[in-house]
């Protein structure tokens, strides 16, 4: 997958693939292995005046400056991207990062990870001339209900969240399925890969009953379960005993319930659309959760 980032602050992204905000961990590895590529484009290179002006005063008056459409149009033209009506829909998307955009989430990241190319346009100042939205962009995305001073951080967020979902980017294919907001099903029995994992945990004849939540992970649209590592006791607080019990079934059950409890505490909205088993529902009811009618 290829990313083009259009910005007036190209230095923000540092020297890729080893330095800067995207030069670490999964993204850096994906860049070095050729799974993903990124090109940063300085919008000032597409200006024609002495001051290399990318912005101008707003029509109608008011605070601040607005990014002009012409340099953006020329930058997109240099990438062989036609204005929207003439551009074939499909494997690429021109995305404006904007507080006024649709909310970016994990399912948007999954969709972006299927694209061949994403062009990320970073706004600054009061924003971007609206004709850029009307004529040049396919979508306008916001990373949350707050206002950043520029689109660069938001572009980095989109890129990171999408790249780690590219097949081969993570060490294990299941890592991105069984995590917060993951699409992995709660019951291992339904996925061939997961069934193999299940078999490794449960010798023949000792498989858990289908009514027991068998995933070691959260998945199915809820938050991840809490994780612990050494030491077993930290500042007087011990790791839940079950995690050292060696009883894999009990561990799975505990993790599922801990993930449900955490989701209820922090993101009860997710429970409306999560894929919940009867056991899950009963457990949540015991915690006082009543689903909205
Ligand atoms: N006047 C705009 C408004 O009230 O919606 C805010 C402009 S902001 C100061 C400058 C730029 O930061 C935007 O053009 C956009 O590219 C980026 N930005 C700010 N908040 C963002 C968010 N929540 N998600 C994505 N991009 C954001």
Description:
It is a single chain. With 293 residues, the chain is an alpha/beta fold. The two termini are 42 Å apart. The chain is elongated and about 70 Å long. It has helices spanning 25-33, 69-78, 106-112, 130-136, 152-163, 192-201, 248-266, 278-286, and strands spanning 2-7, 37-42, 55-56, 66-67, 92-103, 117-122, 139-142, 233-234, 237-238. Strand 8 (233-234) and strand 9 (237-238) form a beta hairpin. The protein is built from 8 helices and 9 strands. Helices cover 28% and strands 14% of the residues. It has 2 domains: 2-163, 3-Layer(aba) Sandwich (Alpha/beta knot); 193-286, tRNA(m1g37)methyltransferase, domain 2 (Trp Operon Repressor, Chain A, Orthogonal Bundle), CATH 1.10.1270.20. The site of S-adenosylmethionine has 20 residues, from strand 5.
